[in-house]
Amino acid sequence: MTVEDNKNRARQVAELVSTGNMALVDENVAPDFVRHDLGGRPDIVGPEGVKLFVGVLRAAFPDIQMTVEDVIGEGDKVVVRYTARGTHSGVFQGIAPTGRKVTWAGINIYRVEGGKAVETWQLADALGLMQQLGVVPRVGQARG
């Protein structure tokens, strides 16, 4: 596989959230896949874990769109910088729907082997998302 092939695989995995096309998981995610969340949340393991994660995210933000802003690859690693946008219309991490439109950014570093993503490290702006949902006050904003 070339670096360009790896970049295309990583892009498809990132865009899966927008499409909800779970067939893309089976095509692009290895059976022993692990997503390491650098924000401290539990790892996501295997294609079924990815499907569950995407399903939960799409249930909370049914109109979610992930825009891939940059894709950079070298060897077996691919970095994808993205922006996600959606309306909070379902329960998300125990937070009742607010109806708020939200935007957050993130970066995933994928390791691709044999044409499939086997590992990724993710860092997303969870604080900014929680502030937009009204769960965490912004700096200088009174809580309540």
What does this entry look like structurally?
It is globular, with a radius of gyration of 16 Å. Strands 2-1-6-5-4-3 form a six-stranded mixed sheet. The chain has one domain: Nuclear Transport Factor 2, Chain: A (Roll). The protein contains four helices and six strands. It has helices at 3-19, 23-28, 46-60, 126-132, and strands spanning 29-37, 44-45, 65-74, 77-87, 101-113, 116-124. By secondary structure, the chain is α+β, with helices and mostly antiparallel strands.
The computed structural class is alpha+beta
> Helical percent range?
25-40%
**β-strand amount:** 35-45%
Q: How is the main sheet built?
A: 6 strands, mixed
Give the averaged pLDDT, no decimals. Answer: 92
Q: What Rg is obtained from the alpha carbons, in whole angstroms?
A: 16 Å
Q: What is the number of independent domains?
A: 1
The number of helical elements comes to 4
Secondary structure elements and pairings:
Elements (H helix, E strand, L loop, with lengths): L2 H17 L3 H6 E9 L6 E2 H15 L4 E10 L2 E11 L13 E13 L2 E9 L1 H7 L12
Parallel strand pairs: 1-6
Antiparallel strand pairs: 1-2, 3-4, 4-5, 5-6
